[in-house]
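Quarterly update, task 2.4: fe (ii) ion-bound model.
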Amino acid sequence: MTSQVTPYDALLICSFGGPNVSDDVVPFLQNVTRGKNIPAERLEEVGQHYYGFGGRSPINEQNLALLAAIRGELASRDIDLPVIWGNRNWHPYTVDTLRDAAAFGARRILVLVTSAYASYSGSRQYREHLAAARTELGDDAPQIDILRPFFNDPGFVSANISAILESAEGLQGGLEGAHLLYVTHSIPDTMQDASAVTGPGYREQHEDVRAVIDDALFERTGVRVDSSLAYCSRSGDPRVPWLEPDVNDRIEELAAAGVTKLVIAPIGFVSDHMEVAFDLDVEALETASEHGIAAVRAGTAGTRSDFVSGIVDMVLERASRERGEEAAARTVGALGAFPDIAPPGSCRMRHNEVSGIPVLAGVED
Ligand SMILES: CC1=C(CCC(=O)O)c2cc3nc(cc4[nH]c(cc5[nH]c(cc1n2)c(C)c5CCC(=O)O)c(CCC(=O)O)c4C)C(CCC(=O)O)=C3C
Ligand SMILES: [Fe+2]
């Protein structure tokens, strides 16, 4: 029987993972940083962020909430599709979830990676991870397809717009006279360059979302805000260049230019996980307050209904394309939909280097 989700047997939410208790923190950080050049001092510092929150990242509960919301949306549309969850860096690990799913008879699984923008960290690294999981499962491995990067999905963007409007209610006079500072995760310049080889790069994807949201806010409120894009959570060797400006430096610059009202909009993050909870809610808001700026932090897409129904729309859209039907890919902004299958050579760690690590299609590209 063909249903709206044929050929898929399940939807896998594949996320980063995070520690649940203090004893998880060090092994989790070891998983994340294996093979990466992260100085011990940086790891020590990030470990402290987790311990400050009782050794527990908010990300796992947020993923469970997203699962529940997607299940609710599917049920409300009478769609029968199991939703399962696996992580790259902590339990439940993707390979374990896939093994279970296969044991229950799942042969073909669609994956939503909880990262909206395409770069090595948000795209290829997940594709390598899923390929490794399939290799580990051998003949029992289900076939896997991955949803395209969804930064310009109408539901994701609309959820961010609502979040910004809601947070601006916390400022006297709302958006009028405020600077809107969009924030995302910094990445090394080399990773940025590599993200721009087969399509618009990581920075350009964010700039596109910024333009769409700025216009939408003008339409809704009549206020044309001043806005800019800044980066948080840089890591690695301090001598290696990463995308700038850092959010705190940018706030100081804005203060020097006379800005007194600020909305911080973490469009680069899908939920309020550690980077948001610490780097923005603790550090960036403190920087703003030190400089006499009244600042609010907008929410993330999280489980907002626009985002959740957008996810289900993307699932249906992909399923119908896989059945050979025409299904337009809905997007906002100027860049258009990214391809369903990431092109060879896309989103390498460094643009001039082939790692040889297999990605999902099984080719070393
Ligand atoms: C672009 C991007 C996203 C957004 C896309 C996406 O959402 O996937 C993201 C998400 C996340 N990053 C996370 C945690 C960490 N990231 C690290 C390190 C790094 N991130 C990088 C980039 C990104 N990271 C990079 C280039 C590094 C350097 C090492 C490397 O090249 O990999 C480290 C090591 C310590 C440190 O140096 O910070 C940790 C602990 C968590 C979990 C948070 C929680 O527990 O709530 C989440 C969602
Ligand atoms: Fe990260």
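Highlight for this quarter: Residues 10 and 82 are 5 Å apart (CA to CA).
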